[in-house]
Amino acid sequence: MPSRADVGVTGVVARRRAPIALALGGGLLVVALLAVLVAAPAGRAPGRLATVVNWLPYLLTGFMYNVLISLFCMFLATVAGAFVGLGQVSLYAPVRRLSAFYTHFFRNSPWLVILYSMLYLLPFEVTSLLLLAAIVGAVVLAKRKLDS
Question: What are the residue ranges spanned by the domains of the chain?
Fold first, then answer.
């Protein structure tokens, strides 16, 4: 039996009804989505469901690549986290301070700030660094070929 402190607007009764309302809302959303997909537009154009079925292999391929990239990134993050964790217990003070700064920087940053910085800043920087490395490599290879 719930105590008086548990019962109220945000109490036990509201907590029991929330999953039921969520299930009903999700079910209605699925039914509405299916109704929109099955409804054929005017004219001889294929129905929305036929369009989704035609694009399904491409969507599933994209989903598979998304899952593979996520697993690869989780692996890389685990390896990087292990190195940062080892750096925090390092005997060298600069390594320990750098690891602590890295950890506290990402721990104290909001997720949205990290997301935007990774989406908008990192790809440009990584791309420009890769382009710079490719140009330097091409120059070095060309110079070696000219010298020999």
Answer: 111-148
How far is Cα 122 from Cα 129, in angstroms, rounded to an integer?
10
pTM of model > 0.85: no
| Measured distance CA(8)–CA(98) in Å, rounded | 50
Distance CA 81, CA 89 (A): 13
CA distances to 56, 81, 115, 122, 126 from 72, in Å: 24, 14, 18, 18, 18
Tokens 């940053």 map to which residue? 109
DSSP state, residue 40? P
Task: Tell me how far apart the alpha carbons of residues 143 and 125 are, in angstroms, rounded to a whole number.
Answer: 27
What does DSSP assign to residue 2? -
pLDDT over 70 for what percent of the chain?
79
